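Running log. JK asked me to keep both predictions on one page so they can be read side by side. First protein, sequence followed by its tokens:
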Amino acid sequence: MWFHVDDDAADHPKIVAAGNAAFGAWVRMGAWAAKHLTEGFIPREMAHHYATTAQLSRLVECRLLEVCKGGYRIHDYLDANPTHSQIARRRAADAERKRRQREGDVTA
């Protein structure tokens, strides 16, 4: 799975305001969310694994993270990243295509 980051992110005012360390933590949290298909949710414990309290406060202040029950949510995560169900559908379609290829179906 991939965590999509816009190629203009380095110069975005929110990123510049957050600073390099906080942005690095944000990217790591985004990669974790993508890997675990959480649609941008980061449990409190994982957020503190990747970022200091000051970095998390800065990310919230810059509106890159939102505080939610049990942790944080990456702001607008689903604007650039697929939902859990979209990923599941794509994986199922890929598996079916590969199954047909292994069986010699030339239309796969």
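And the second, directly underneath as requested:
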Amino acid sequence: MTLSSNRDFRWFWYGQVVSNVGDAFATVALPLLVLEATGSVTQMGYVTALAAGGQIAMSLFAGLVLDRVHRRRLMIATDLGRMILYASLPLAWGFRAHRIGLIYVVAGAGAAMGNLFSVGNVAAIANLVEKEQLREANSRTQASTALAYVIGPILAGAICARFGTATALCVDAGSFAASATSMALVRFGADEAPSRVNEGGPIANLLAGFRFVSADRVLRRMQVFMSVIGLMASVGVGAAVIDLFIFRIRSDLAQSSAMVGVCLGVSALGAAAGAICSPRVGRRWGFAACFFGGTGLQGVGMVVGGVLPLVAGAILGGALWSGGLTLRAVAAISIRQERSPDALLGRTMAASWTATFGAACLGALFVTNLAARAGAGHALTWVGLALVTAALVGNARGVGLTSPATVKR
């Protein structure tokens, strides 16, 4: 069966496209809401760090939960929960109950639910397609996510400028309803993990994902590197680097909210290109070319965005940064799916993301405080150079990160 003829994968994919468009609205609207309420790039960093903290807290338990319960029902519940959370912001702003504390709650709790859904998302794809189709399926979902981030920010910027920033978050709330509907129409190959792996009690089960990652040479080396770049705020579509680009466009370059959306939307074309190219680059030059090459490309994008005092420089820099992100992400997600048995897949992903987002939480505070002290342009340039250096060192020392063999399920 091809991906195009796989009904369950198609419905799942369509729902995530809609959901990602809504998330793209939040990527623009939430930082702008913080900036409008406080005028502080440091507060933007606090909100981003709190979101990373929510992901960390949930990562500790997400894998164990998803490996022990009905995955699809839980994912629907997280969609509905996020719908309620994000709908609370425009409702509060409509009643002029402007509270930065509410943004903190939505950012933290929404990120925690998002992490739970994302871990389930990886397991879902692994149960919707054949093993040999994993890279193509991940490429397709990552590319459509990137395209959603082309359309979403442009529309979000226009809606923010015309109707107000809080209104744009209504779209994000509605997108979660669409995602929940599509999930209700999908049937996984396994709604629950085939084995609950009860070895040594609840603590041992909770730590099983960490043990698996530590014991697997490839996953262990990947994780060390991902933690390093997390400290440079260059992991995930909600990374604090996006705060720097937004702050630079809005404040340093004195552009409108609508232009912020256009810049981020056009930049996201790079993410689509990176996702589409990742399987091809991996087949031709190996996994390391995607993993370290994508990270180096992110660093180059940050330097370009920091050095060029033009909107075009911010767009080009953002495109290179996002392209490198998805070039690496497709390869990394696919390797984890291939190497992890289904009974441990949720916990393996959760363990990796706990360490990664723990570093990203610190990274968000670091880069935004650096921007507050030295300016967004200098912060982008310095962190970008550090990221390129990390990619070069990682590639030189990354022996074995080529095309590792998979683990049989």
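Observation for JK regarding the second prediction: The chain is about 80% helix and 0% strand.
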